[in-house]
Amino acid sequence: MTRYLISFADGAMDHIPAEEWADVGKASHAVVQEAHIAGVWVFGAGLERQRASVVATDGMVTDGPYPETKEVIGGFSVVDVASREEALAWAAKIAVACRCAQEVRELMPDAEQDAMLRQANR
């Protein structure tokens, strides 16, 4: 299995009227439940709209990137699936539920981390 990051940009859901947010929440939670039942859900969350902090290798902390930049992620999901096509299918379901386009990127494999997670979940 391969993990995929499914994400959307900050502001991608700004077009949704306030009175429809409950419906969006219900629809997105239904997709999460479906993915959980299918055994592919790893984790996901929306991100608060705020400035991030960047910590350099020397420990120096600076502000940025700022929410106004295109590069800021507004929310994400991680699924563990057999193929890119399956990840794209889950992204399509998330796009419909969240009413915004989703970006799909394959995460690099890390056998050592996987072994640590398996050990921790025993």
Write the layout of secondary structure elements.
Layout: E1 2-9, H1 21-38, E2 41-46, E3 53-55, E4 61-63, E5 73-81, H2 84-98, E6 103-106, H3 111-120
Structure keywords:
single chain, 122 residues, alpha+beta, four-stranded antiparallel sheet, two-stranded antiparallel ribbon, 3 helices, 6 strands, Dimeric_a/b-barrel, YCII
Explain what this protein looks like in three dimensions.
The structure is a single chain. With 122 residues, this protein is an alpha+beta fold. 35% of the residues lie in helices and 27% in strands. The chain is built from three helices and six strands. Strands 2-5-1-6 form a four-stranded antiparallel beta sheet, covered by helices on one side. Helix 1 (21-38) runs antiparallel to helix 2. The mean pLDDT is 91.
Short précis:
Residues 34-107 form the YCII-related domain. With 122 residues, the protein is α+β, with helices and mostly antiparallel strands. It is built from three helices and six strands.
Q: Approximately how much beta-strand content do the residues carry?
A: 25-35%
The strand order across the widest sheet is: 2-5-1-6
Strand element count: 6
What percentage of residues falls in helices of 4 or more residues? 25-40%
Distance between the termini: 20 Å
Oligomeric nature of the chains: single chain
InterPro entries: Dimeric_a/b-barrel (IPR011008), YCII (IPR005545)
Protein name: YciI family protein
Domain YCII-related: 34-107
Organism: Plantactinospora solaniradicis
